[in-house]
Design goal:
heteropentamer; A mainly alpha (147); B mainly alpha (537); C mainly alpha (146); D mainly alpha (195); E mainly alpha (99); C: mainly alpha; E: elongated
């Protein structure tokens, strides 16, 4: 059965399979890891793997880099994915820089960069706020009832 | 489905390049040797100028680095954009399509800007709310941010604004991603600016950034797969090539990833986690602007992909409408409204109500009919008006009282009658009281449900409207029926806060009473999206 | 005692070639791999190297932050300016063909200017970002008043 | 001609080996708890992917990935670590939901590969539709040998305009986020900075 | 051609070995050295690959790698030694001397 499966697989797609695995490793790091920096690293790996997906779809077997040169007989690989990924890399570093700046601020203000601790701190503030509001409004109600 | 026929919008849109792909036409070399008049230039390049004006002013603000000038330039940028959006809208109101080839490269080769009724409507929303937000920003930013940061703030605001415009106007799928990222990155920074008031803004911005980036990356993956199968990135060209590939597994996956990516950006129900916190803790002006525009633009992008690029047939085949958009939209409406009822922070109430309102738009799509799509387009416009008005009013309350938790808002109706009157106006519209825009969009939604004879849906829509009345009432009750805390002086927010707020409130009633213009526009847009105009089929 | 002498000397020797290499990448981008973005990053890398070895203050004396900050906008405005220039010549936005009498020359000018704009923005933005990050790391940990 | 075939074979062989290295690095990044090591490994991942890009003929992309991914982003991460510390807590929360999400997403993508054109197929739609026009036009209309440059800066120059805008936006965002404290500091110790 | 191919493979094997050292540590210096070596091998691999495919003019990229590798290593070492990237090395050394 396994040999059936293997012979049915199109091995011309091996690059995509590995790239998908790499992408998923990155995605998993983004979702599962509680450390803010680790999440950013995961995001980087996720994005870099997507870049590979694009670049490998433009590759032509036996082709060469799309830079014109006298006397070249080989075909050129597709330049368009390269252009797109150049843009995407820039977007990636821009996002990383901004995310790291946010992490620096979070560390300065909260004193931690672990997600669960941040969540705890936020939930605590929220509960206090709700309690305060309920108290004040409730006191109002009582006074209103006494009248 | 064939792409809608390109109709040259009169002689003005002289730059529609009709040359065959691959040949570069220097049309202008011979005829225009003398510099053409300024007016001609403006008239010929409206689609480009729509994005370009705010985009140019943004770096200029940083360069000048002056607080007063930056506000002025932001005002100029947004209002000129509004003017251009109005002109563009009048040009496409008859169902025509304006195509603008950047760099004079014929579309699949170069990048194309494309204006039809659907994105003219969204351009109008973004530009109008942006103008209001720019006026509003002056006192609000003075209060909530440091003085030295203001030029940077206005730069980021204009970047966000032009990013949203760019996403809306572009006809190229990858270009959409680039502008999406400009708007998203500036949004993350803007949301984080709320940290001066409440540190939770930082955490909210971070979570938004992570989720938003994952969403954008999903979009890029989907687009990559679509490109792999077709070899093109131009939306119109994609639309032409995709029908031949129906049934290809890769394409299903591409469609799925693009949908999920955009659904993250538009805060569709299970992917909405970033929204409530981001809207609650962002500075007031940012909340107002984003709540009214950012999600609408993402909804528009989704609509564009569903109807124009992949085609309604494809989406029906994928069971996107019945099995995804409709149920998730409904859950979003119910869950959003339910959670909103229990909040103690008025901004948070409105944020969860936004999740619910996005649900209405998705339900409109899920109804799979011309009326349903019209209702969605209408609701995009109307929801922008009401959420803009409501959040701006809350920002004015915040300006005066320092917070918008319910306990702080006690007696606000007596303390600042004009502001709270505006809030009530917006609230009525949100609930869907007749004579407001909220009623109009609900009416069309009900009609669409009625056409399908889905009476259960009508019941749900009515019940959720009641829920909206409940959560709005909680704010009204606190503001009007309770005494103000002692020691707070009566007094209004500054005029620059009230003017844009009231402008939006009045627009709520104006378009509620004279709905023909908006309904026309929405219906033209819906017809265009479904390919019913121009006899192109 | 001065263990870092080698690093300091090597850095001083290395920085001019790095800057030169950045310029080469910038202007050779038409013929080989490279272009404005890569050149900008390499240019910024030279600054980072200088700041790492000689300290941020010394590096800021070389490239004053407020001026670098202005250049982030200048580069982008240059890019947009090229597009607007073509508008004034009666062509669509970013159509370089009209920039010179011969469309191909026009394209060359356009690409050169545009890549220059990208290079300026990228270099100055990267330097600015590094500046802010390194500066933040030097601040005392306590006493954050947000 | 034999030369030609062996080149293609070598390309595949090197690609596979690089993929193995990449996979090892990625999984190591996931497992390590020392953030300092993680950052270094991310740099290595970036370098490796850049080599892969060279092998796949994307020299411009390799150039950028090396300078950005391995250079700038490593330096920024180190700057962040110098403030936040480098030990990460081993999280105790359940990993089942993220694992499920990842598996579903990955499964969907794997399903999607079935209909894809083969790796390196010169007749893939992507290589037939617009790309040949770029290659031809770059020679005839623009006359710039580097096709990537001509597409980037002329055909799709609006994208690049936006890309520059993205970088600019990131700069503005970082200044907004980290700026206020910096100013305060400059105000308090004027003595240190005489410029 | 075969020579280049063999060299490429050999380089990748050494890269793998460096990677193992990078993963297992145990000290930071091991890791830094491993990263540095990894970078050097990458530079060589690119150069060899250029000749392998007959387009050696892309050596530019190898130069960038070498450069980035140098700066990266300095940043890592400085970070590890002083926990800051901003201060000048001379200043830091003076501080150390004072302590």
């Amino acid at each position: 059965m396994i040999s059936d499966l293997l012979s049915n697989l199109n091995w011309g797609h091996y690059n995509y399979w590995i790239i998908i695995v790499l992408m998923m490793v990155g995605l998993y790091a983004v979702i599962a890891r509680g450390n803010l920096i680790k999440k950013i690293v995961g995001l980087n790996i996720f994005q870099t793997s997507v870049f590979m997906l694009y670049i490998s779809l433009g590759k032509v077997d036996g082709g060469t880099a799309p830079i014109l040169e006298e006397g070249l007989t080989r075909p050129f690989s597709n330049p368009l994915p390269h252009v797109l990924i150049l843009t995407a890399i820039v977007v990636g570093i821009a996002t990383t820089a901004l995310a790291l700046a946010l992490v620096l601020r979070i560390k300065a203000v909260y004193g931690t960069i672990e997600e669960d601790e941040l969540e705890e701190a936020d939930n605590k503030t929220e509960a206090e706020e709700a309690q305060l509001a309920a108290d004040i409004l409730g006191a109002d109600d009582n006074r209103g009832g006494a009248h | 489905m064939a792409s809608p026929e390109i109709i040259l919008a009169a002689a003005e849109a002289g730059h529609i390049v009709t040359a065959a792909a691959g040949t570069h036409v220097g049309t202008h070399g011979a005829t225009h040797h003398e510099a053409p008049g300024l007016l001609d230039i403006i008239r010929n390049n409206l689609p480009a100028l729509q994005v370009l004006v705010p985009l140019t002013l943004a770096p200029l603000i940083t360069l000048l680095n002056n607080r007063n000038l930056s506000w002025l330039l932001a005002m100029v940028g947004t209002s000129v954009s509004l003017l251009i959006a109005v002109v563009l809208t009048t040009q496409v109101l008859d169902g025509s399509v304006i195509s603008y080839a950047l760099g004079n490269w014929a579309p699949p080769l170069g990048i194309e800007l494309r204006v039809d009724a659907a994105n003219a409507l969204v351009l109008l929303i973004v530009a109008a709310i942006g103008t209001c937000a720019a006026i509003y920003a002056r006192p609000s930013v003075d209060k909530e941010l440091g003085m030295t940061e203001q030029p940077l703030f206005y730069t980021a605001f204009l970047l966000c604004f032009s990013g949203l415009l760019g996403v809306t106007i572009t006809g190229d799928a990858f270009n959409l991603f680039v502008f999406l990222e400009i708007s998203s990155l500036s949004t993350y920074a803007l949301v984080a600016m709320g940290a001066k008031q409440d540190r939770r803004a930082l955490n909210a911005a971070y979570n938004y950034l992570i989720l938003g980036t994952v969403g954008a990356t999903f979009y890029v993956i989907g687009l990559g797969l679509a490109y792999m199968m077709t070899g093109t990135l131009n939306m119109a060209d994609l639309a032409q090539r995709l029908p031949d590939l129906m049934g290809s597994g890769t394409l299903w996956v591409a469609f799925g990833f693009i949908t999920i990516g955009l659904a993250t950006k538009l805060a569709m129900f299970p992917l909405h986690f970033w929204l409530p916190n981001a809207y609650t803790y962002a500075p007031s002006v940012v909340t107002g602007f984003l709540a009214a525009t950012a999600t609408k633009v993402a909804v528009y992008a989704l609509i564009r992909f569903i109807f124009t690029v992949f085609g309604a047939d494809f989406a029906v085949e994928a069971q996107l409408f019945g099995k995804v958009l409709l149920p998730l939209g409904l859950i979003g409406i119910i869950a959003g409204s339910l959670v909103a009822i229990w909040q103690v922070n008025a901004k948070r109430i409105l944020a969860f109500s936004s999740v619910a309102q996005i649900g209405y738009m998705l339900v409109g799509l899920g109804l799979m009919s011309l009326t349903g799509l019209t209702a969605t387009m209408l609701h995009m416009f109307n929801h922008a008006l009401m959420k803009g008005a409501l959040f701006f009013a809350l920002g004015a309350v915040m300006w005066k009282l320092g917070g918008v938790t319910l306990d702080k808002m006690r007696g606000a109706g007596k303390l600042m009658p004009w502001t709270m009157a505006a809030f009530v106006g917006g609230g009525l519209s949100l609930v869907g009281v007749p004579t407001t825009v909220g009623f109009i969009s609900k009416w069309y939604l009900l009609n669409a449900a009625f056409e399908r004879e889905w009476y259960w849906l009508i019941a749900i829509l009515l019940i959720t409207s009641l829920m909206a009345a409940v959560y709005m009432w909680r704010v009204f009750e606190v503001a009007y029926l309770r005494p103000a805390p002692e020691g707070v002086q009566k007094g209004e927010a500054p005029l620059l806060l009230l003017i844009p707020t009231w402008a939006l409130v009045l627009a709520n009633f104006w378009f509620g009473l004279n709905a023909t213009t908006t309904v026309n526009l929405a219906e033209t847009a819906a017809r265009g999206l479904l390919g019913l105009t121009g006899g192109a089929n | 005692m001065n263990h870092h002498l080698i690093l300091r000397v090597i850095t001083k020797i290395l920085i001019p070639p790095i800057l030169l290499f950045a310029l080469y990448v910038q202007f050779h981008g038409d013929y080989g791999p490279g272009g404005g973005f890569q050149a900008g990053v390499i240019f910024a890398a030279a600054f980072v190297l200088y700041a790492l070895i000689f300290g941020l203050d010394a590096a800021n004396d070389v490239a004053p932050p407020h001026i670098v900050r202005g250049f982030t906008a200048v580069g982008w405005l240059l890019y947009i300016g090229v597009g607007v220039w073509s508008l004034f010549l009666g062509a669509p936005f970013l159509d370089y063909s009209v920039l010179a009498h011969d469309p191909i020359h026009g394209q060359h000018y356009g690409i050169l200017l545009v890549e220059g704009g990208v290079g300026i923005t990228v270099a100055s933005t990267m330097i600015t970002i590094f500046n802010y990050f390194a500066e933040h790391g030097r601040l005392p940990k306590e006493g954050d008043d947000d | 001609m034999t030369d030609f075939i062996s080149t293609s074979f070598m390309e595949h062989a090197v690609t596979i080996l690089l993929f193995v290295l990449l996979a090892v690095t990625a999984i190591a990044v996931l497992r390590l708890t020392n953030l300092f090591a993680v950052v270094m490994l991310t740099g290595a991942y970036s370098l490796l992917s850049a080599v892969l890009f060279v092998v796949l003929d994307a020299v411009d992309v390799a150039f950028t990935e090396a300078s950005v991914g391995a250079g700038i982003s490593t330096v920024l991460m180190l700057a962040t670590l110098s403030v936040t510390g480098w030990r990460r807590k081993v999280s105790s929360s359940s990993n089942i939901v993220p694992l499920l999400v990842t598996l579903v997403v990955g499964g969907a993508l794997l399903y999607g590969t079935a209909d894809m054109p083969d790796f390196g197929d010169p007749n893939a739609p992507a290589n037939l539709h617009v790309a040949p026009d770029y290659i031809k036009g770059s020679e005839e209309d623009i006359d710039v040998p580097n096709i990537v440059t001509s597409v980037l800066a002329s055909y799709r120059s609006f994208d690049t305009l936006g890309e520059t805008g993205v970088i600019f936006t990131a700069g503005i965002g970082v200044m907004l986020l980290l700026g206020s404290r910096r100013k305060k500091k400059a105000a308090t110790d004027k003595t240190g900075e005489t410029a | 051609m075969t020579m280049f191919a063999a060299t490429a493979i050999a380089l990748m094997v050494t890269m793998l070995m460096a990677l193992v050292r990078l993963l297992s540590g145990p000290t930071v210096y091991d890791r830094v050295l491993a990263v540095n070596m990894f970078g050097t091998k990458t530079v060589l691999l690119i150069a060899v690959f250029g000749f392998l495919t007959g387009r050696p003019e892309f050596l530019d990229i190898a130069i960038v790698y070498a450069l980035i590798n140098f700066i990266g290593t300095i940043a890592i070492l400085k970070f590890f030694r002083y926990r800051t990237l901003g201060a000048s090395t001379a200043e830091l050394q003076d501080q150390e001397g004072a302590q």
